[in-house]
Amino acid sequence: MPAVTATLSAIIASTPRSRLLTIDLGEDAFPFAAGQAVMFGPHGATDRKPYSIASSPERVADTRRLELLIAFD
Questions:
Q1: Strand partners of residue 21
Q2: What predicted TM-score, i.e. pTM, was given to this entire model?
Q3: What are phi and psi of 55, to 5 degrees?
Protein backbone atom coordinates (compact mmCIF):
# COMPACT_ATOMS: atom_id res chain seq x y z
CA MET A 1 0.00 0.00 0.00
CA PRO A 2 1.38 3.47 -0.82
CA ALA A 3 2.18 6.03 1.87
CA VAL A 4 -0.77 8.03 3.13
CA THR A 5 -0.60 11.45 4.75
CA ALA A 6 -3.21 11.89 7.47
CA THR A 7 -3.91 14.28 10.34
CA LEU A 8 -3.08 13.36 13.91
CA SER A 9 -6.27 14.56 15.59
CA ALA A 10 -5.81 13.49 19.23
CA ILE A 11 -3.27 12.17 21.72
CA ILE A 12 -4.71 10.76 24.93
CA ALA A 13 -2.65 9.53 27.89
CA SER A 14 -3.85 5.97 28.48
CA THR A 15 -1.29 5.08 31.16
CA PRO A 16 1.84 6.86 32.42
CA ARG A 17 3.80 5.03 29.69
CA SER A 18 1.34 4.87 26.79
CA ARG A 19 -0.64 7.17 24.55
CA LEU A 20 -3.61 6.53 22.28
CA LEU A 21 -3.10 8.35 18.98
CA THR A 22 -6.16 9.07 16.84
CA ILE A 23 -5.48 9.63 13.15
CA ASP A 24 -8.14 11.26 10.97
CA LEU A 25 -8.18 9.47 7.60
CA GLY A 26 -10.53 11.96 5.95
CA GLU A 27 -12.26 10.49 2.91
CA ASP A 28 -9.50 7.97 2.18
CA ALA A 29 -10.44 4.31 2.48
CA PHE A 30 -8.09 2.32 4.70
CA PRO A 31 -8.94 -1.38 4.45
CA PHE A 32 -7.03 -3.70 6.80
CA ALA A 33 -7.46 -6.94 8.71
CA ALA A 34 -7.45 -7.26 12.49
CA GLY A 35 -3.92 -7.80 13.78
CA GLN A 36 -2.21 -5.73 11.10
CA ALA A 37 0.23 -2.91 11.79
CA VAL A 38 1.07 0.38 10.09
CA MET A 39 4.38 2.12 9.51
CA PHE A 40 4.03 5.49 11.24
CA GLY A 41 6.22 8.60 11.42
CA PRO A 42 6.27 12.36 11.01
CA HIS A 43 5.25 13.86 7.66
CA GLY A 44 8.20 14.07 5.30
CA ALA A 45 10.45 11.81 7.39
CA THR A 46 11.85 8.66 5.82
CA ASP A 47 12.22 6.87 9.16
CA ARG A 48 9.01 5.06 10.11
CA LYS A 49 8.24 2.53 12.86
CA PRO A 50 5.64 -0.26 12.86
CA TYR A 51 2.71 0.06 15.26
CA SER A 52 -0.23 -2.28 15.80
CA ILE A 53 -3.64 -0.87 14.99
CA ALA A 54 -5.77 -0.61 18.16
CA SER A 55 -9.14 -0.06 16.46
CA SER A 56 -11.20 -2.66 14.62
CA PRO A 57 -11.57 -2.56 10.82
CA GLU A 58 -15.32 -1.96 11.27
CA ARG A 59 -14.78 1.00 13.59
CA VAL A 60 -12.28 2.60 11.20
CA ALA A 61 -14.70 2.14 8.27
CA ASP A 62 -17.47 3.84 10.31
CA THR A 63 -15.48 6.69 11.90
CA ARG A 64 -12.67 7.21 9.33
CA ARG A 65 -10.33 7.37 12.35
CA LEU A 66 -7.46 5.00 13.05
CA GLU A 67 -6.23 4.44 16.61
CA LEU A 68 -2.72 3.40 17.59
CA LEU A 69 -1.65 2.56 21.15
CA ILE A 70 1.95 3.72 21.57
CA ALA A 71 4.08 2.63 24.55
CA PHE A 72 7.37 4.29 25.47
CA ASP A 73 10.02 4.27 28.22
A1: 11, 68
A2: 0.85
A3: -100, 155
